[in-house]
Amino acid sequence: MNGEVRDFSVSRRKDWKGSANVVTMRPTAAVPYAELCGETLALAHSCTGDRVACAAYRGSANLIDRALADVAGQRADQSGQNFAAFLHTIDSGRLQAVGGL
Q: What pTM did the predictor assign?
């Protein structure tokens, strides 16, 4: 600050870690808890870029591969539907499109 080099010390007051008792968890809570765990793990490893760590966590089963392929297919279908609706809106005259920009 003001052209001066200064050292800073930063510490965490709370780590905000939490857990749940999965042994006594009701089935209706298990799915949201599993989704939260998966999202947390995915976010943590997407920030590190460590493909080996990600592969180790997911194991040898191809369940994640199939799940990702399913989601990608669903999103591709939705994108196609969105684009068709976009074209329909242009064709109906409700939206003006200018080409060649």
A: 0.42
